[in-house]
Amino acid sequence: xxxxxxxxxxxxxxxxxxxxxxxxxxxxxxxxxxxxxxxxxxxxxxxxxxxxxxxxxxxxxxxxxxxxxxxxxxxxxxxxxxxxxxxxxxxxxxxxxxxxxxxxxxxxxxxxxxxxxxxxxxxxxxxxxxxxxxxxxxxxxxxxxxxxxxxxxxxxxxxxxxxxxxxxxxxxxxxxxxxxxxxxxxxxxxxxxxxxxxxxxxxxxxxxxxxxxxxxxxxxxxxxxxxxxxxxxxxxxxxxxxxxxxxxxxxxxxxxxxxxxxxxxxxxxxxxxxxxxxxxxxxxxxxxxxxxxxxxxxxxxxxxxxxxxxxxxxxxxxxxxxxxxxxxxxxxxxxxxxxxxxxxxxxxxxxxxxxxxxxxxxxxxxxxxxxxxxxxxxxxxxxxxxxxxxxxxxxxxxxxxxxxxxxxxxxxxxxxxxxxxxxxxxxxxxxxxxxxxxxxxxxxxxxxxxxxxxxxxxxxxxxxxxxxxxxxxxxxxxxxxxxxxxxxxxxxxxxxxxxxxxxxxxxxxxxxxxxxxxxxxxxxxxxxxxxxxxxxxxxxxxxxxxxxxxxxxxxxxxxxxxxxxxxxxxxxxxxxxxxxxxxxxxxxxxxxxxxxxxxxxxxxxxxxxxxxxxxxxxxxxxxxxxxxxxxxxxxxxxxxxxxxxxxxxxxxxx
Length: 654
Fold this sequence. Notes:
8-stranded parallel β-barrel, Glucose Oxidase, domain 1, alpha/beta, Histidine-containing Protein, Chain: A, 25 helices, Enzyme I, Chain A, domain 2
């Protein structure tokens, strides 16, 4: 048996979505894998057991693997555990089905100071007719099963599992389902099929209990187990277990559930509890708000409500009978206030607040497709940062003027083998066509020891952010790098593809990339394959690049400043370490000085410069960047309209 000590770096720990992806990765290996915290362990191939371990960000754990591919399993799983974004939405974007500024980010929940108190789980004010979702409680029949009927009961359980998971798979294909919704639904499928739950049910059936009784009892026990875990995200998974259990129970009993398909336009959905399972069946666009007496801001229904910009209050301290009897419900998803059948004066006041919020959203919405030109008449490009083709539609809806940063890591990380040149060329070309004639800037592979990639073995590094990553790794692995460069050259025939190289520290690295590009073009020409002439730019994210910007500008068509890494490197402050969070500021004078050095060098060499880090979306920093000479800003799609508004209102005077 092999083992390795690692520290959990996954943001907020191994809650449902990252745990699901971790289990999927573990299942690709033949070896038995266990994860241990102190004396407590869990099977790494069981999402339920993994979630019950309640691993938090920053905790030290031990990975153990036993089998012929144990070493490879440890490498891949350790990399996953030590990657902050592992298992999460790659770009961190908020899909724009009905999203606006209020759903672009989420602040800690607050409790109501007026009305019925609850947890503000998704910002926004709403008022409308109540639509009650109070399904009949499933009762256990408590039948005894004869030994000869046991296999029939187990077969009934398996059919129920198939029916239930098929329903979830169907929900994933519904219009308006966001990438984040999809991840949550996949996590529910993993729970439904997890051996911890199904094994407990089958064991109970073999002792003579009927399938429905065994399912309801096993689900109840498992949900209670989750509720005892000292972790908000893990406790919230009890809701998922109850939703899965109920769905299995309905399938076993042949009972039709209360339908959410009939929710009228503008209604407030009121319930004791709504699982993500239930939410996926509702006509999301019709919902004006959600109020539940159970649930927390970390529940999946809360996450989905925020994704779709639906105001929500969970854990409302309302009498259940009063909630069922209410005809009109109002809520404030920021403060957690809920009003049941408010009087006329209160209702009018709430409607006025709803109208004011709507006007604010409409005002911002008007900027989605406006050309961002400063008061001084300078045109600025506001583009989107993307990580997959699934994010194209939200970016286009937001009014993104192309792609300022396409992260190619996901193409490599989600696979068991390296993507081929043909596969990559198809993806880059599709991206280019979607945004034509606007440019799309594709960042070459920025992967190091902090990210798991099949087909690339990374040595153990104590600090992979300062190690063998980005262009350093790519130049050492032309077998990996050249297929990507060839794919980009092929996609560049679309006419709007640009290439950007990450983690550059000196001009020699850029010259070596140019030499490889020339080699790749010659090979494509020899094979009779068409190739374009993409511009080559540099992602400016290291202090060395900032200090050598004048030299680098001689060899680049453009600069794009990655403020996330530039900030942590300039400030010597890990952006994932809360103890030094006060130092990790893109508005720090030292960071802005580095940005200024880059912009000055770009101006002297007459190349354009953009910003593609999180700071590009900050209204307080955008005017500063513009005064420095930045002409392109790239960000999460949800931030595009506000950034355009900031540009249009910007005064470039010093």
